[in-house]
Design brief:
Layout lengths: L1 H7 L3 H8 L3 H10 L7 H14 L6 H4 L26 H7 L20 H16 L2 E5 L6 H14 L4 E4 L18 H12 L9 H17 L3 E6 L7 H11 L2 E2 L2 E2 L2 E6 L1 H6 L8 H4 L3 E4 L7 H12 L10 H10 L1 E6 L2 E6 L3 H18 L6 H6 L1
Parallel strand pairs: 1-6, 1-7, 2-3, 3-6
Antiparallel strand pairs: 4-5, 8-9
Helix pairs in contact: 6-16, 7-8, 9-10
């Protein structure tokens, strides 16, 4: 097709306007053979008509039967899965004048965390639980920023010099049943508390003596002015019995003072386990506040991208056109059918946005565009 376009002698912009498609789509087809996910056959017919009208030979690739379009990166997975990992490549960074990737290993301090009202609330809820006790479950989709808030909590405790002992049981192979992996049981949590509060102490053999030992260790640590926070990540993998046992840990006191605050961090399955309709964990549900990390909707997306590029020393308006930001919001909003009809579900979470914008910038740099526009984002 390149030879046929050279034969006609018109620019890609003029040809795209005549054909009735976007310039990025046309360049992607001609230079890379990347046909659009939808409307590929219609575009083939329009290209045939364009070459016939302008007196050029119809390329062999258009005379043959169209091949099956390659799977879109996220079509092999469920439609509601997030986009595949993408990094801004060296050519794209040079093309757009970036000294570093604004989306890769970019969180180096608390100032790098973009604060929306719900992020600020969740952040403060976690910190107040660490300082004063409480029971909080932080719920969010994959890539919503849960791990970032955990790291921010640890950094804030260190930065402010708070006497807070963080207790984090290892959850490397944790699943909610022993067929899939290893369940985290109350005894494992007890061992983690003892190791954090009284390092080097050997746990007693009998459960009764062990839990009394833990209670005393917490009391002694509290007398020294320490607060204690049990923080469990990937908490959606906790089995229901362990969730129920957390209530017993939460009720450990010295007089009126609670000895242990609890923060659970997990994906949306955690909220389902802590549902009010689940009688198996009703004792926990009545004591645990569930806070949710929401997507970057209602105008927060533009602020997020501006913040990310500014932290990397760049101006987002010089790299992303407004149509590109609108297209990101459009691409990451999916429709689903339910008994209530068609519903819109937003996937505008930081990790998904980072991957989509990075892929679009790589594509725009490869095509030689000065800025990323909506057509480039839709073509990724």
């Amino acid at each position: 097709m390149k030879a046929a376009f050279k034969q006609i002698g018109k620019s890609y912009a003029a040809a795209a306007a005549e054909i009735g498609c976007s310039k990025p789509m046309l360049v992607a087809v001609v230079n890379h053979g990347n046909w659009p996910k939808k409307g590929a056959n219609e575009l083939r017919e329009k290209l045939k008509q364009y070459f016939e009208k302008n007196g050029a030979d119809i390329p062999a690739s258009l005379r043959n039967e169209p091949e099956a379009a390659p799977a879109h990166p996220n079509e092999s997975e469920d439609k509601e899965m997030l986009l595949r990992k993408a990094k801004i490549n060296q050519a794209a960074k040079q093309h757009f004048g970036l000294v570093r990737d604004p989306f890769h290993d970019e969180i180096q301090s608390a100032d790098d965390v973009f604060m929306t009202p719900d992020v600020r609330y969740v952040r403060e809820a976690m910190f107040q639980t660490a300082c004063h006790g409480g029971f909080v479950a932080v719920v969010g989709e994959s890539g919503a920023g849960k791990s970032t808030l955990r790291e921010d909590l640890q950094d804030r405790i260190n930065r402010e010099g708070r006497q807070i002992v963080l207790i984090e049981p290892y959850v490397l192979a944790m699943e909610d049943n022993d067929q899939k992996g290893k369940t985290l049981k109350a005894v494992h949590i007890a061992e983690a508390i003892l190791e954090a509060v009284s390092p080097g102490s050997s746990p007693k053999r009998s459960p009764e003596a062990r839990f009394r030992q833990i209670h005393r260790a917490l009391q002694e640590s509290a007398k020294a002015g320490n607060k204690h926070l049990l923080l469990i990540e990937e908490a959606h993998g906790l089995p229901l019995p362990t969730l129920k046992h957390l209530k017993r840990f939460f009720e450990l006191k010295s007089g009126f003072e609670r000895l242990l605050g609890i923060v659970l961090i997990g994906q949306t399955e955690l909220a389902q386990k802590l549902s009010e309709n689940n009688p198996a964990v009703r004792e926990v549900v009545q004591r645990c506040e569930v806070v949710t990390l929401l997507p970057l909707t209602d105008g927060k997306l533009e602020g997020y991208l501006k913040h990310k590029f500014a932290r990397a020393g760049a101006d987002v308006t010089q790299i992303l056109a407004q149509s590109a930001i609108d297209a990101v919001a459009e691409r990451l909003t999916v429709k689903s059918r339910s008994s209530k009809g068609t519903e819109l579900h937003s996937l505008l979470y930081p990790l998904a946005v980072n991957n989509l914008v990075s892929a679009a910038m790589n594509q725009a740099a490869e095509l030689g565009f000065d800025t990323v526009d909506g057509d480039v984002v839709r073509g990724v």
